[in-house]
Each structure stands twice: as structure tokens, then as C-alpha cells.
Design brief:
By secondary structure, the chain is of the alpha/beta class. It has helices at about 15-25, 40-50, 65-80, 105-130, 145, 150-170, 195-205, 215-225; strands at about 5-10, 30-35, 55-60, 85-90, 135-140, 175-185, 235-240.
């Protein structure tokens, strides 16, 4: 499996799952645009890739800002020569029970997690359609499949991302562009490390494989879906959860 000669954009790539995805795609030969709202984090990951012999550039971007996304993708296309692979990984949480959730907490999570993906897909689709090839991988969550108390905003954004994926797959399929979603379960990242120990124990008891996932577990699937080996797979949602959502 190789991604030699391909250009990849990974959002939320400054840490956690996004970092692992960026490193994995670069290891397979892709030129990677490391995109994150935290430029310091994006630059650090970019440095790791370059030090490892890969090719990468870092970009500071709030994916919820439509105009900023348009401008950033213009620079990325110029710098990398195009966009062959788009991984929409940027995401946030603002958890609370729905009766206590503020409208700002609802709007911000939907803006980053769902609108942000739309913004990036729209910006990348022009290049992909013109080249008549492309891979779009959207990072959803098992919470988008099951829902979760205290995460109505997050669940809605991730469920919406799955529906967006199916629609994009149908719209762009005739141009050689595939779109798939992945649904990670409990993955050890900075976002999950702060969960209460009781919550961690409850999750662990429900996982068939009896272990938490790693960012690399997710990155391996993204790499496959980004490759020519997945040429006939589109519109799908694949859980990477060790059996959590059964």
C-alpha cells in the first residue's frame, strides 16, 4: 500500500488521532498538510514528519470559518499541487446535560465538528472533481451511532457527519471520488484522558477486545480508505471500537 505522489489534508492534526493519521499517511509517501487551530501543535507534527524523511507543511485554521477554509485550501493546493486525500478529523466536545447545555455550547460543537467538515469538503471537492479522483475520510464516532447522555451536541454532530458522508459519496462518486466515515470508540487521546476513572471502567467493561484503542488503530484504517486498495468502497461507516458499539 502506497500513497506516493498523493497530497493529503488532515484537519485537527496537531495532536491525538489527527497526529497519528498525518504521520501514517506521510510514512506511506503522501505530502501532508497538517492543519490545526493550534499552529504550535501543527508545526510540531510537521517537524516530526520532515525529520522522519517525509514531506509536510503546517497550517493554522479554524475549520468552522468558511472564508478562512477557502483561503487556506487555496494555499494548500498551491503548496502541495492539489488535494487527493481529505481527512476531516477536527472536533471538539462541550459536554453537559441537555437541560443545562447553553446555545453557545451547542452551536460551537456543531460548527466545528459538522460545519467544519462541510467547509473543507466543499473546498477540496473542486480539485478532486477536476482530477476525477479523490478520497474523503470523515472521522465520526460511535457516539454518533449510539448517542450518549451528556453529549447531545457531540452525538448530533457526529451522526450528521455520517449522513453528510453518504450524501457526498452519492454526489461525487461519478467523478471518481470516494467518501467514507470511521467511527472510533474509546481511543486514548488528550480528549479522553481526563474522563473520570469510573467512566473509563464502564467503557472498558463494554469493549469486546478488553482494551482501549490507540490513535494508530484509527490511522491504519484511514490509510487503507485513502489508498487505491479501497477503490470500490464508498458511503460506508466503519467502527474502530474493539466491539464497543455492538
Amino acid at each position: 500500500m502506497t500513497l506516493e505522489g498523493r497530497s493529503a489534508v488532515v484537519t485537527g492534526a496537531g495532536s491525538g488521532i489527527g497526529r497519528a493519521i498525518a504521520l501514517r499517511l506521510a510514512a506511506l509517501g503522501a505530502r501532508v498538510a497538517v492543519v490545526d487551530i493550534d499552529l504550535k501543535g501543527a508545526s510540531a507534527v510537521c517537524g516530526e514528519i520532515v525529520e522522519g524523511g517525509g514531506s509536510a507543511s503546517s497550517y493554522e485554521l479554524d475549520v468552522s470559518d468558511f472564508d478562512a477554509v477557502e483561503e487556506a485550501f487555496g494555499r494548500i493546493v498551491e503548496d502541495l499541487g492539489g488535494v487527493d486525500i481529505l481527512v476531516n478529523n477536527a472536533g471538539i466536545t462541550r459536554d453537559n446535560l441537555i437541560i443545562r447545555m447553553s446555545s453557545d455550547d451547542w452551536d460551537r460543537v456543531l460548527s466545528v465538528n459538522l460545519k467544519g467538515a462541510f467547509n473543507c469538503i466543499r473546498a477540496a471537492a473542486r480539485t478532486m472533481m477536476r482530477e476525477r479522483r479523490g478520497r474523503i475520510v470523515n472521522v465520526s464516532s460511535v457516539i454518533g451511532l449510539t448517542g450518549n447522555a451528556g453529549q447531545a451536541n457531540y452525538a448530533a454532530s457526529k451522526a450528521g457527519l455520517i449522513a453528510l458522508t453518504k450524501s457526498v459519496a452519492k454526489e461525487l462518486g461519478s467523478r471518481g471520488v470516494t467518501a467514507n466515515a470511521i467511527a472510533p470508540g474509546f481511543i486514548e487521546t488528550p480528549m479522553t484522558v481526563g474522563l473520570p476513572e469510573k467512566a473509563r471502567e464502564d467503557y472498558a467493561a463494554r469493549i469486546v477486545l478488553k482494551r482501549f484503542g490507540t490513535p494508530e488503530d484509527v490511522a491504519n484504517l484511514v490509510a487503507f480508505l485513502s489508498s487505491d486498495d479501497a477503490d470500490y468502497i464508498t458511503g460506508q461507516t466503519v467502527a474502530v471500537d474493539g466491539g464497543l458499539a455492538w
